[in-house]
What we know:
It is built from eight helices and five strands. It has helices at residues 2-18, 26-33, 42-55, 80-91, 101-108, 137-145, 160-165, 230-238, and strands at residues 113-117, 151-157, 171-179, 185-195, 242-243. It folds into two domains: 2-91, Adenine-specific Methyltransferase, Domain 2 (Adenine-specific Methyltransferase, domain 2); 101-251, 3-Layer(aba) Sandwich (Rossmann fold), CATH 3.40.50. Helix 1 crosses helix 3. Helices cover 33% and strands 13% of the residues. A five-stranded mixed beta sheet has the order 3-4-2-1-5, with no helix packed on it. It starts with a helix and ends in a 12-residue tail after the last strand. The chain has 255 residues and is α/β, with parallel strands linked by helices. The chain is globular.
Amino acid sequence: MVTFFRILQRHYPQFMETLKFQIASRAEFERLAACNVDTLTDLERAARFLYLQRLAFGGKVAGRNFGVSVGASRFDVTRLGPLLEAIHERIAGVVIECLPWTEFIARYDGPETLFYLDPPYWGSETDYGACAFKPGDFTRIATALADIRGCFILSVNDVRETRAAFGRFPIEPVSTRYTIAGGQWAEAKEIIVTGPRIDSVTPPRDQCGRARSCSPRTAPAAARPPHGSRSQRRAARREWPRPAWRAAPGGAPRV
Length: 255
C-alpha cells in the first residue's frame, strides 16, 4: 500500500496512462493474478495491485478469486481519479504501520489507546498467508491484551475455541451477513470481545483530575462529554480517547 501511494505521488500521469482503456473482465483478472510480478515495472505492479483489489472477491490479497457483482463493475477507469483522491483523503491523517501484532501493541499501548483487532476466523488462519497466523496465536493475543494499559475491541467468529481463548473478557455475540456467490447473503455468527474489564483498569484523568472511561456507554455521567454548545462538544471530544490504527496478523496493514 505504501509503495502504491509512492507511485501515485511521483508518477500519477504515467500510472493513469498505464490503465487507459483497461476493462474489467475475468480473463484479464486471471491473467494478472497469475503474472510473475518480478517481471513487471513499478508502474505495472501498482496498476496490477489496484485492478486485482477492486475486482477480487472480498478484497483479499492472497488466494484472490474474481468477484461476481450484479450491476456496474467495481473497476471503472473513468472514475479512478476521484476514487484515489477520496482514499487518500480518508487516510491522510493515519499512520500506516507494518509490524507484527505483538510489537504493534507494545509500541502503541497507553492509558488512552483503544485498539481494534481483527484476526482471521478460527479455521481460516492461512487467509493472511501460510505462516502469518496460527491457532495458538488466539491465546497469545488474549494473554497480551490482559496486560495492556489501554482498552481494546476484538471481533472474530463465534466458535467454541474462540470463546475459550477470550473467556476472561466480556463477550457479546452478534449476527452479521456476508455476500456469497451469486449475490446471495449468508448469515454468520461473531463475538465482540472488549476489555480489559473497566473495574480492573485505572481510568485516565482529564485536566481537572476527573476519571475518564474508555467507553462512553460505561462511563459515569461526570466523565461523559457534556451536552452544550458545538464548541463545548468539540472541546470534549478532543479529550476523549482515540483509537490506534489496527494492525493485521503478520504485520500486514488493514485498510
